[in-house]
Amino acid sequence: MWLAGALLVTLALAIVSLFVGVGTVTPDRLWSDAEGGQALQLLLVSRIPRTLAILLAGASLAIAGLVMQTIVRNRFVEPSTAGTTESASLGFLAVTLLAPGWPVMAKMGVAALFAFAGTALFLRILRFVPLRDAMLVPLVGLMLGGVIGAVTSFLAYRFGLLPSLLAWTMGDFSGVLRGRYELLWLGLVAALLAYGMADRFTVAGMGRDVATSLGLSYESVVTLGLALVSTIAAVTLVSVGAIPFLGLVLPNLVSLLVGDNMRVTVPWVAVLGALFVLVCDILGRVLRYPYEIPIGTMVGLVGSAVFLVLILRGRHA
């Protein structure tokens, strides 16, 4: 019942999103003979693709965070706090420098491979660090992401690609048009696969020994989870840029509401992730109208505040 209500609110706000922006698109203009053609063109080319991109990116990134938290068994981990996003940026920069003529799909594949390698390195480092405090896990990820980000920034500066790097690392839906967001459907496919594997991820989240004793191939499930997370991170980065803290905040809030069974939490995380990004995007377009606050700034501002609250809450629990 509550999930259906959240879904209806998301759909209602998605309709509102279609009519928010500098260009005037209203139901009256769509039916007007004189201006209907222009308004309909704006709706089909810009507003509908943008709203779909928001819903797809929000849902898939939130699920990616849930999968990563389940695998790592730590609630403060997500692609932007584990070096995954920074690794995808490095991969996208590398392929842009070495093979600028490659199609976007090939570049996205290279970014996904770098994201996978960066996440695997993060998990490898965790094996050698005495983590007596759960809060140290995201700190390790942030430090790893900082090192990879510094290397990426240096290479971008060296080859004059800092503006492009800024565009990749700053999530922004203002440039989404028909024909430039369709890769995000791959993120939805990865999210659906994560839902199909929810029971296996839940068992893997109990630890290697428990999973193996229950007959589960722990390494295979973890590898598949990392591949799904890396694909979602790469697809989102290539299409709309990085959106920080989304995969951290929503799984934690959903866990407080409905518990930790991944089969139950995945639909909640998907719907609330899309709703959260949708609300932030509409606010970003309205607060500085006719200008726009990038979605990366809006989500980062709210997400970092919630991240701090969760850390303090964990300290006092």
Mean pLDDT: 84
Give the overall shape: globular
Instruction: Give the class from helix and strand content and strand pairing.
Output: mainly alpha
Q: Which residues form runs of ≥5 with pLDDT under 50? A: none
For the biggest sheet, the summary is: none
Structure overview:
The chain is mostly helical and 317 residues long. Helices cover 76% and strands 0% of the residues. It has helices at 2-18, 27-31, 36-72, 84-98, 104-128, 136-158, 162-169, 184-196, 198-204, 208-213, 218-240, 246-258, 262-287, 295-316. Helix 3 packs across helix 12, helix 4 packs across helix 5 (104-128) and helix 12 (246-258) crosses helix 14. The longest helix has 37 residues, at 36-72.
Quick recap of the structure?
The protein is an all-alpha fold and 317 residues long.
Compile the SSE list and pairings.
Blueprint lengths: L1 H17 L8 H5 L4 H37 L11 H15 L5 H25 L7 H23 L3 H8 L14 H13 L1 H7 L3 H6 L4 H23 L5 H13 L3 H26 L7 H22 L1
Helix pairs in contact: 1-3, 1-13, 3-8, 3-11, 3-12, 3-13, 4-5, 4-6, 4-11, 5-11, 6-7, 8-11, 12-13, 12-14
